[in-house]
Amino acid sequence: MGVNLPLVTPETLAEKMAGAPRLLLMLDYDGTLVPIAPTPDQARPKPELISVLGELSLLPGRVVAIISGRRLSELQELIPLAGLHLVGAHGAEIQEADGKVHRLFKDQRAKEIISELDGIARECIASRGGFLVENKGISLALHYRQADPFLARQVIDNFIKKFSSLPDANRLELMPGKKVLEVRPRGINKGLAVRYLCRKHAGALPVYIGDDITDEDAFKALKNGCTILVSPRPRPSAASARLPSPRHVGKMLSLLLAKNKLKVR
């Protein structure tokens, strides 16, 4: 993994993508399209972002996909646009641009374990403040962004210990993120969605932009293309370059739209 990724400008990245005859633009949601918020419910897209994404998806030769750990139903509510690919639950749920939905995950026992872990997480938290348990049905997120760091460490360590003692724990995997610990089915990750979309849109320039540990699977899956880490500081990553923030991602999208509009005139 590279550490000192080159910092790319929105202008340079938009120029590269605009020059491609066909483009497959894949974007994470939290921390990439919108800033990380105190709670998931507060991380909502601005109307300007929705407008740009909608216009880009309607341009010839441009495919836009949002790939997130959130439920597909959440993405549908947050980005209510026809013509986009929406991928939820780290690749387990895929909505095509025409609205057709594929569900790649069918392990009922893993779903049952997630339900058990919901209760275990709440037991570990007890009455402590600053925590949030997000049960996504086929994955679970334990948020501790607003918790005392010392208490957060205690709760997380206790949860991991209880998780590891479950008989079928090997069906799932733990994935640390930005002030969150996620539990997801083993083998389900954003790299699966990237490979699926690249096969479906073979010949297009594939671009993936993401900010978190869960996006590393997508970076690794994209052997030939453009992978962009969204981070204000360098960190080890399989990405090829870096943008500093969601604000820079938004600027790049607006520039890309403007350049593509000029091309189709």
UniProtKB/TrEMBL annotation:
Domain of life of the native organism: Bacteria
Q: What pathway does the UniProt record associate with this protein? A: Glycan biosynthesis; trehalose biosynthesis
Q: Which GO terms describe its molecular function?
A: metal ion binding; trehalose-phosphatase activity
The reply to whether Nucleotide-binding figures as a keyword in the UniProt entry is no
Please tell me which top-level EC class this enzyme sits in. hydrolase
What is the reaction catalyzed? alpha,alpha-trehalose 6-phosphate + H2O = alpha,alpha-trehalose + phosphate
What are the names of the required cofactors?
Mg(2+)
Its BP terms in the Gene Ontology are: trehalose biosynthetic process
The alphabetized UniProt keywords are:
Hydrolase, Magnesium, Metal-binding
The record's InterPro entries line, in alphabetical order, gives: HAD-like_sf, HAD-SF_hydro_IIB, HAD_sf, OTSB-like, Trehalose_PPase
Q: Report the EC number(s), separated by commas if there are several.
A: 3.1.3.12
* Alphabetical list of NCBIfam families matching this protein: HAD-SF-IIB, T6PP
Its family?
Belongs to the trehalose phosphatase family.
According to its UniProt entry, what is the function of this protein? Removes the phosphate from trehalose 6-phosphate to produce free trehalose.
Q: What is this protein called?
A: Trehalose 6-phosphate phosphatase
Q: Which organism is it from?
A: Desulfofundulus australicus DSM 11792
